[in-house]
Records
---
Amino acid sequence: MLIEVQAISIEGGDLINRQMTPPPRVDYIVGYAAAGVVVALGSGVSTRKVGDRVTSFGLDGSHATLRAIPESQTWLVPDGVDIAEAAALPISFGTAHHCLFARGALQSGETVLIQAGAGGVGIAAIQLAKRIGATVITVSSGSERLAKLKSLGADHVVDHQSEDVVKAVFEYTQGRGVDLAVDPVGSTLQTSLQSLIPEGRLVFVGNAGGGELTVDLWPALQANHSLFGVFMGTQFGYPKVAATVDRMLDDVANAKLKVLIDRRFPLEKAADAHEYAERGKPFGRVVMHP
C-alpha cells in the first residue's frame, strides 16, 4: 500500500535509533509511525481501498510525504479520530497494553507503578490500568505535569526530582509495595525493582534514559521477582496485538481514551521536532505534518 502521509509521530525508538544506529544508505528514510490516506494498492491488498484513512507501523519510512507499507502493518482510522492521534496511538497504547496485560498480567485490585508517566507509553498505561480497576502510582516531575497525570486517572503521583520514589511508593501502599512496575526509562530499573512486593513483576520496555541497562539482580532473585522485557517491533504482527490496537482506536473515537499531542511541527522542521522531543520534556507525543 502507498500512503499519503498526513501525520508522523516521533517515537522514543526514533530518538534512540538516531543516536545509536547509523543509516545504512544515503537515501534511507527513518521513522516508525505515520498516518494518512491510502493513494495506491498492490495487487494482493484485500482489506483496504484508495481513500481509506490508515495509521501504520514499520521500522523505517515514516518521516516522508509518501510511505509504502504492507497492509498487515496498518489499521483503519475510525471517524472522529484526529489523524495525529491516529499516528501516535499504535506504538504508545499498543506498548502500554502489552506491558500491562500480556506481559504484566495486571488485575483489578492490584497496584502498578508506571515510570515516566508523562511520556506516550506512560499516559496510555495510566488510563488503561485505571479503567480495569488497578491502583496507579506514577512518576514524573513538576507540579503542573503531576496534576495532569492525576486528571488522567493516576491515584498517586511522585516527583522524582524532589522525592525518594521508593519511599513514596511504600508510603502510598502502607509498606506493601506494588504488584507490577512498568519501566520505559531503563536508568530507573533499580528503583522499579525496589518498589515491588515479594513475587512482584517488572516489565521493562526501552531505554529512554540512555546509558547502560545495569541492575543488581540479587535482591530480585531473593524476592522471587519476575522480569519481562518487551520490544514491540516484533509484536504488532500478531493478530491479537493488532486487534487490540483496533479496539483502542475505537475507544479514542468514543472518548474512552485520550491521546495527548504536546506539539506539532512541519516535516521540514524535523531536526527541531526531534530536538524538542528529546530535550523539551513533552507531555505526550510530538507530531510532524508534511
---
Amino acid sequence: MGKGKRGLVTAAVTVVCAVTVLAVPGTAFAAPAPPPAPSPSPGVSVPADKDLEAVREKLDELYRAAAVATDAYNAADEKARLQSAQVAKLTRKIAKGQERLDELRARAGAAAAAQYRGGGLPPEAHLMLSDDPQDFLDGADRVRQGQHATNGLLGELTRTQQDLEQYARDADAQLKKLQAGRKAKAKAQQRIEKRIEAAEKLESQLEDEEKERLARLQQQAADRAQSAWLSSGILDEISGKATKQGKEAVAYATAQIGKPYQWGAEGPRTYDCSGLTSQAWLSAGQGIPRTSQAQWKQLERVDIRDMRPSDLIIYFDDASHVGMYVGDGVMVHAPRPGRNVTLAGAGSMPILGVVRPDPDTN
C-alpha cells in the first residue's frame, strides 16, 4: 500500500485472491474491484460492506476446508491407533508362538535321541531277542503310542511354524498400513495448518473496527439462516424428548461451553466439533465414530421433524461439521479455530441431516 493509508479491507480482499488456491476445490471467487484512487483529503477511506462480505465468505471457505482436513486427520489418527493395537497384538502372538515352537523343538529332539538310544531296531528283531513274548507285546504297544505321540508332536510343530509365518505376514501388512496412515495423517495436518494460516493472515489485514464489522456480518448471516429455518415452522413439529442417556450427553456437551476449539482435540480442555460430540456420548456410556463424516455414515439417520435433544446435526454437503441438538431450536458445537464451544441456532448453517447415537433406547 502507498503512504496514504487506505482501508485495509482492500488489502484483505487482495489476500483473498492470493489464498484462493487453498480453498475447497470447485469454489470460485470473483476478482476484486480495482482499489479506489487516493483521496485528496487526509483520513481513511471507509471500506464497503460488500468487500467485508467477500472476506467473510472466503474465511468461511478456508475454515470449512480446514474442517474437512481435520476430519481426514482424525480418521487417519483413529485408524493408526487401531492398527498399532493390532500390530502389538500380533507381536505378542509371535512371541508366544516362538516360545511354543522352541518347546516343541526341544521335545522333538528328546524323542529323536531316545529313539536313537533304543537302537532303532524293527519290532521283528525285538521279538526274536525277547525271552517273554508278552513283554514284547507290551513294549510294542508302548512303541506304537510313542510313534503316535511323535507324529502328533511333529504335526503341532509344523502348525506352530505355519502360524508364526502367518503372524509375521499379518504384522508386516499392518505395519505397512500404519505407515501409510501416518503419511495420510501428516498430509492432512499440513492441509489444516495451511488453511488456518491463510485464514489468520486474511483476518490480520483488518483493523479492529473492520474486524468488529466482520463479526457483525458473520452473526447476521447466521441469524438470517436461523430465521429462515424457523420461519418454515419446523420447530412446531419437533417435540422429541431426550433419553436418560441422551440427557447425560447433552449435560456433558453444554458443560464444555467456553472451552477453546482445537483441531484434532477430544478434550478435556479443548475440542474440535466431532471431538465434542463423540466425547459427550462416550461420557454417557455410548461410543460413536470419531469424525463427523463417519457419524453421518454410520449412525442411524432420523427425519429432522423427529429430532430430539442429544441427536447430532450434520452440516454441509460434505458432512464437515457437527453439533448436538439441545432443544428449542438450539445446538451446542465447537465452531472453528479462534472460537470457543458455544450455543448456536440449529439452522444457522446448511443442514445435511440428523443422526441418532441411541436409536434403541426408550
---
Amino acid sequence: MDITDRRIDAGKAFDWGKTSADYARYRDIYPPVFYEKIAARGLCTAGQRILDLGTGTGVLPRNMYRFGADWTGVDIARPQIDQARRLAEELGQKIQYIAAATEEINFPGHTFDVVTACQCFWYFDHALVMPRLARMLKEGGTLLVLYMAWLPYEDEIAGASEKLVLKYSPGWSGAGEKKHPISVPDCVYDPFKPVYHEEYEVSVPFTRETWNGRMKACRGVGASLSPGEIAAWEREHRLMLEAVAPEEFLIKHYAAMLELRLK
C-alpha cells in the first residue's frame, strides 16, 4: 500500500510492504539496553496490556515478550504483519497482530496500560489519533515514543551509506540525524503530559552484509525505489562497503525515548 505524505520525503510515495522480507531479516537491530531501559521504567512488563502502533515486523513486541506483558501490534502494511506473525510463531510467542492503519483502530475504552510507537510516531494523523489513544488507555496510562538512528556526521560508514541513499532519493527526509530529544506535535499534549525522556548513544554491530540489508530496508531505498533502482543502489552500496568498511564493524547510533502519561 503506497503512502504519500507531504511531510515525508517531499511527498514521494513509499510502501513498507515492498521491503518486508528485508525488514524482517535486517532491522531487528536494537541493542539489549534499548529494551532494558523500557522495562526499568516499569513499562511493558508482566500484568500490563500493550498496544504497539506501527509494529512493522513486530520487533518491539518480539524482543519485549520476555518481560511478560500481553502485546497487540498493528501496522498498515499487511506484508509487515505477515512477517510479524511468522516470526512470533517460530518463537512460540502469543502476540496478536492486526493489519490496520493506526487511524482506523478502535479498541474499547480503558483497554491498554501502555501504547508504544517505535520509529513510526511521525507518520500518524495526530489530531485524529491522540483522542482515540487517550480513550483506549486505562486511567494514568502511558504513551511511549521510541526512536533510534545512526549518526552520519559521527560515523564514516553511516555517512557514506546515507549519501548514496540521497543520490537515488534526493528528497529522502531520513538523512542528517543528530542526537536530540524526541519532539511531538502540540496536540499530543492535550491528553498527555511528559514525565520522562532520555537520549543515549549506542554502537550497533554489523557485517557488510547486514549493514547493506539494513540500509536497503530503509524508506529511501527498499520502500520507495523501483526494482531496477534498488538493484543499482545495491551494486553501488556493496562496492562502497568493500572500499571503506571492514568485514565487521560498529555503527554509531543514538536512541531516545519519550514517556507521556494520560492526564
---
Amino acid sequence: MAADTSQSVAKAAGGDGGDSVAARGRSRGTDSAKRGGLGRALATHWYAWAMVAPVVLVLGVIIGWPLARGIYLSLTDANERNVGRTIGANHIEATYKFVGLDNYADVLADPVFLQRLVWTVVWTVLCVSITFTLGLALANMLNRDFRGRAAYRMALILPWAVPGFVSVFAWRFLFNRDSGILNKILDGGGISAIPWLDDPTWAKFSVVAVNVWLGVPFMMVALLGGLQSIPGELYEAAEMDGATSWQRFRHITLPGLRAVSMTVILLSTIWTFNMFPVIFLLTRGGPGDSTEILVTQAFREAFVASPRDFAGSATWGVLILALLMIFALVYRRSLRKQGEVW
C-alpha cells in the first residue's frame, strides 16, 4: 500500500510537472508563433512594404517635419526680428525664446479669432450645402439617357479642369464694378451696378458663388458614380409598386448614395475650410477684413503683418488643424452611430 501510494504521488507530481512544462511550452510556442507570424507577414508582403516606405518617408519629410516645426514655433515668440537670418556675409543667430501656451491664450482671447471662426464656419456650411445640392441635382439629370449627354458632362466638368487661380481671376474680371460683364448686363437692363467686391455683403456672396462654381464638378462626378452603382431593378420594382418620383428618390437614391455622400461631404468640408486661393485672389480678405477666414488670417500674420509674426501664424495653423481633427472625429462617431464604416 505504501509503495502504491508513493507511486501515485510521484505520478501526480510528474503529471503536474508535465502540465506545467507543457504550459510553458505552449507559451513559448505562442510567442514564437506571434514572432513567426510577423516575420511571415513581412516576408510575404515585403514588396508592399518596400513600395509604401518611400511614400511614408516623403510624407514624413514634407508634412511631418513642417508640422512639428510649426507646433514648436507656436510655443515660442518667433517673429521677423528675432529669428536666425543671414545678411550679406553676416549671420545673426536666433534670439526667440520658449513661451509655452501664451500664444494660444492670446489668440483665443482675441475677438478677431471668434470673428474669423464664425465667418469660416458660415462660409464652409454655405459652400458645402449649396455645392452638394447642385451636384446631386446635376448628377440626377446626367444619370438619364438623353441626346447630347456626353457634351453636357464635358461642359459641366470644365470648371474642374481649369486651374483654380485662372477661374478666380476670370471671376474677378466678371465682378469688376466698372468694366465687369455682369454689371454691363445689368446696366443694359436698366439696373444700377452692383459693388460685387466692394461691399461686405456682396463680397461674401461673390466668394461663395465662385467656390461653388469650382466645387460643383467634383461633387457631381462623385455622386454620379454613386448613382450608377445603384441597381436599376430597385427603381423598376418601386415604380411597379406605385412609388412616386419623390418616394423613389427618398427611399432608394438617398440611401444608396449615403456612403459616397458622407465621403464627399467630409472632403469638401476640409477643402472649403482651408480654401485660401478663392478668398485671397478674389477679395484679398476685403473689403476691410469682411471675408477673412482662419487660413487667410494665418497667412496675413506670417507674410503681411509688420513685423511678420511667425509664432502667431503657426498658432493659427495649429488651431485650424485642431478644429478639423475635432470635426473629423465627431463626424466619424456620428457615422458609426448610423452604422456606416469609415
